[in-house]
Amino acid sequence: DTSLAEVNSFSPSMPISPSSMINQYKFEDEPELRDLFITVDDPESHITAIETFITYRVVTKTSRGEFDSSEYEVRRRYQDFLWLKSKLEEAHPTLIIPPLPEKFIMKGMVERFSDEFIETRRKALHKFLNRIADHPTLTFNEDFKIFLTAQAWELSSHKKQGPGLLSRMGQTVRAVASSVRGGVKNRPEIFTEMNNYMETFSQKINVLDKIAHRIYKEEREYFNEMKEYGPVHTLWSASEEDIADSLKGVASCIDKCCKATEKRMAGLSENLLPILHEYVLYSEILMGVLKRRDQIQGELDSKVDALANKKAEKDLFSEEIGKLEDKVECANNALKADWDRWKQNMQCDMRSTFTNVAENNLRYYEECLATWESFLASQTVDLHVEEDSEDRP
Fold first, then answer.
1. Which has the least CB within 10 A, 13, 15, 117, 374?
2. For residues 127 and 134, what is the distance between their CA atoms, to the nearest angstrom?
């Protein structure tokens, strides 16, 4: 399957040296062009009679004129990030909103509210806000500005000013009606291609995500076994005087390889796993965006069909169709522009991630190989010394 060839293809002229590999890809943020900088840090636990939750400090520095100050500091909990994401989806239904980390974590990975879990979530929330800040449209969303600047009580008050019940019901009815109608008749070919691409991408990225988690789990099991394996040789050396040095050498090698394995695991958990899972979530978001675009297209198609059946109301329907045509065109243009941007970012992320994993693997195996080669060399020297002493009269 070559559908992901663009993602993992490398130039044939790529240098062999691992260090020059990573230097071939420079992903510069062009900081001189940025005017909005956001940091998510300082997680803080809150315990009440009803619940336990974590808040994070969100620090914003900006030079934009629409902000009243150049720096803001607020505290936000996970539910606030969920609110922001839903508001962005509501305001920009055919733009690709960055994913949030899931509310519930995978069993067997980390415990909820552990330091590891909190740090993993903090990094994901930090990336979420900075992806929005770097987006040419989302960065100017009014709810995003309020999220960054409003104090807790102000944000709570703003949340209550959401769409009314009738508005929400209308949106639900339209969505259900659109889904019942079936496939879109007049979908442009480019969006059919996008849909096919995302179906393949979703399948591949989900497989990669599952395999990566399985590799990490097996690596952890191997690491735990090695931690027990080394000390056994040390204990054994105490009862084998003739080969004590060799057994201690083996124990030392295992200990060094154990530490190298721990570093490799850290690289997987910090670099590979989060990126793969982020794009698993992205694949779900993209499929949702394409469905919302189809719903807008379906609404237009239904009006065109209704116009053909109701000649008496032609003027009224013509006006509605004109508005829907504009809406579809805006949706199509927004999605096409965002699609190209997302695809470029995805390919950069994948190249960077897999190159980083490859270099970490090279360093790991080189370190382990050097450790055992050094041990073998020392044993060879010892054997030569013993042979020489036996040959002497």
1. 13
2. 10
User: Is the fold of 34-140 the same as that of 191-392?
Assistant: no
Number of helices (H), then strands (E), belonging to the chain: the values are: 11, 3
Of the options 1.10.10.10, 1.10.260.40, 1.20.1270.60, 3.10.20.740, the CATH number for the domain spanning 191-392: 1.20.1270.60
Specify the residue for token string 């695991």: 265
Tell me which fold the domain 34-140 belongs to.
PX Domain (3.30.1520)
Which residue type, as a one-letter code, is found at position 366? E
Query: Residue 101 carries which DSSP code?
Result: P
- Which of 122, 125, 121 is closest to 109 using CA atoms? 121
Question: What pTM did the predictor assign?
Answer: 0.77
pLDDT bin (cut points 50, 70, 90) of residue 102 is confident
Beta-bridge partner residues of 60: 38, 72
Contact indicator for 118, 43 with CB cutoff of 8 Å = yes
